[in-house]
Model the fold of this input.
Amino acid sequence: MESMPRQRRQKEQTATRRATINDVAQLAGVSKGAASRALSPDGGRIGRETIARVRAAAEELGYVPNIRARSLSAARAYAIGWVMRRDPDVLTEDPFFPSFLAGVEAAISVRNYTLVLSIVTDELEEPTYRRLASEGRVDGFLLSDVRTRESRFALLADLQVPAVALGAPGPSCPIPAVGIDDRKGAELATEHLLASGRQRIAHVTGAPGYIHTHNRQLGWRAALRKAGKSYCAEGIADFTPEGGAKATRALLDSPEPPDAIFYDNDLMAIAGMAAAMSRGLRVPRDLAVVGFDNIPMAAHVAPPLSSVATDTRDWGKLAALTLLDAIDGRGTQGQVMLQSGLVVRRSSHAVPKHANGQGGVSNQ
Amino acid sequence: MESMPRQRRQKEQTATRRATINDVAQLAGVSKGAASRALSPDGGRIGRETIARVRAAAEELGYVPNIRARSLSAARAYAIGWVMRRDPDVLTEDPFFPSFLAGVEAAISVRNYTLVLSIVTDELEEPTYRRLASEGRVDGFLLSDVRTRESRFALLADLQVPAVALGAPGPSCPIPAVGIDDRKGAELATEHLLASGRQRIAHVTGAPGYIHTHNRQLGWRAALRKAGKSYCAEGIADFTPEGGAKATRALLDSPEPPDAIFYDNDLMAIAGMAAAMSRGLRVPRDLAVVGFDNIPMAAHVAPPLSSVATDTRDWGKLAALTLLDAIDGRGTQGQVMLQSGLVVRRSSHAVPKHANGQGGVSNQ
DNA sequence: TTGTATGCGTTATCAT
DNA sequence: ATGATAACGCATACAA
Done:
């Protein structure tokens, strides 16, 4: 017999080799092509009886199409990519993660897509996008943490891979976007603080340079402006508990300290409350606090934290669906904004008139 | 001209078509096979000069090997899978996530592997493993949240895919494991509470049925036993803030309430502290608290939370490397245990002898 | 409707 | 050392 390189390998695996479409075709007594058509969902020109026979054969053999072969043939990866840039020093727990991913998974798994996730440092971000795209690992990207000066749009255009932005980057964004309405959420929070009688509402921001940070800032300002307030102290932070605590201390040290603070996320808000309370301030009496994200922890700190809430799972699902559409060439060019609501808890309760804290006049 | 289906597509893409190994070979004036060899890292039997010429051509064309074709040919996915089962209602922020993933990425990216991540519900767990394996999407799995009665070992054996367990499942585990020493960590925490003068050290567990929950329980018990303590009140919880708060209230309501609580994670510990304090208890004076994970938030709550710390990033890196070894047939069958340390903060500070809380005598 | 043949891009084997 | 060619498994254009 002639030498048989491949055969050797097959021989070894024979006992457990996975069935290919060839095996199915053989068992069904049809050609490979016919089997392929019979198995394809859109059932092209193929006899009903043949379809039944082939499917029965496939069932019997436990046939599962090999995605690698299909990928090569179809020039598709059947996968989407998500590259997250994270400073290794600031790998804070991200409330965004699990539920957003669950939503993504729900959307893509029914289409037999998978998610390729990488967490990278600054300098590896662009190379990672390039690698994933040029190797043909993914058919599109989810773009999180969109920056105000965003270099990835050009990169993606260069790579010729569709993408969906996770956020609300505004009209200049060249790709579809699905995001929560950060501006509206921030406005909601600020208006609530105003309604609860607060006079000096400060803001502690997330990391600068991000669209969502920017939009939350806009929302806070807009609400203050509408209410005719001129006080607008702001602390620049970075979404981390430590950053939130620092910014809070700085605000409280200022000559005209706030009587309320809106934080760009819950992690900072919780740390901020702790910082304020450890100085003897009472929350909400002396300082009202509202966060963003409504993480599960928010309801279980003391005092329970008010927060802007969004359905993160829906967000993930919608973003993934939009990306799949883009991959299929069904370009929904628009931007979708998910609404967010405010969950009011004790941290921002109104102070009874007879007991408003420092600087109050009042006697009931 | 005849109809040209494939050609048409190629024509359209011609302007931007990615270079294949054929293009490189042509430009270098060699055969496809020679080009392949010249490009392969282990440079087989091939002339030095040819190598140089081919590599230059590849460089010039910006050639990147197509992973899909390589996958088909090599019968490898060049990807590892991680299937996380998560109850959609308890999608709590997972401190484990980002830094662990960063470690995984660091290990696999240099080998040109990617991570396929899915978050699934109970009933989709097994089908997801099956799909990923039988479609040939991944070459191996990372197995997190190992259960005391673990059905996935059999599943993986059936699927014939290597895997690495994330944890310390004990000697009966049929696959290699990389985990932190939960038992030791829990012991450390408990011993510290004993050393700080606590008499009644309770435990609030994570979700039952998991190896790490079990091991932390063992560690807590062992420390108590060694110290000759008989008090061992325990609340069964689930790793969520809400569960931690409930268990805490139950413990405090018991006829003999604890003067210290060790929690299986920080989320529960933080919520537990809040629950205790909202009842007027002072931490650490009336109740000392230690958590597990040392999340960034731990240092920024009031009072700052003592916690068992591990290098999650290293963990991810080591686990991924172990999996890659297993995929390559280099079976490191053993189990690796990463050490963890205790970070002591105010929540567990010793109570000055003259001022021990309830039941204490104390003045000053 | 069905079978045949070809291409996807790579690696590996064989013959030169 | 190099070139030619088969093979990976699937989808599809084309002929029958």
Q: What stands out?
A: The first strand of chain B starts at residue 79 and ends at 85. Residues 3-65 of chain B form a domain with the 434 Repressor (Amino-terminal Domain) fold (CATH 1.10.260.40). Chain B has a mean pLDDT of 89. The CA atoms of residues 23 and 181 of chain B lie 53 Å apart.
